[in-house]
Amino acid sequence: MSEKVLRTRVYLQRPREYGLSGCPQCGNADPEWSEFQKHCWCPTCQIDFEPTEDGVFGGPILMQMAALFGMFFDSLVLETGQVERYDFDSQDWVTETPEQYEISRDEKRKALHERWTAAMERTAAVKKPRETPAVSDTSGSHPDAVLAALSPVTIEKLVEDIGRDW
Ligand SMILES: [Zn+2]
Hints:
The chain contains four helices and seven strands. It is an alpha+beta fold.
């Protein structure tokens, strides 16, 4: 068991929404966040535990892609009571009061979801097998080119995202 470190912030979504596994004692699949980092809390068993599956935190995933599955990594900073939100326009973390966060959250998420749904649809269309050889239209027909044009995410940002603690 790793050393227990007190949590300084907590994600606004529940552990199970990120794919973390549930309580090893009673099987409760919807535990709370523990006061300790990398731990969850089972209110039934009254225990802190380390999930055996670390879900979305286990591998690289673009935050935009995670958002398509309904995951966000916005968190409450426990010391200040403010919210740390990932801003998809500036591609950086911004700190807001809970009131500001409520205002900005829904419209940002809606716009993000629409942008990425459109991107995926276009990519899927490009990847369809051609029934006839392409003749003249080569603009934007390569999947990588399409993604590069639509995605504001860089490799550096991806690496940074993986480093998010939980
Ligand atoms: Zn339990």
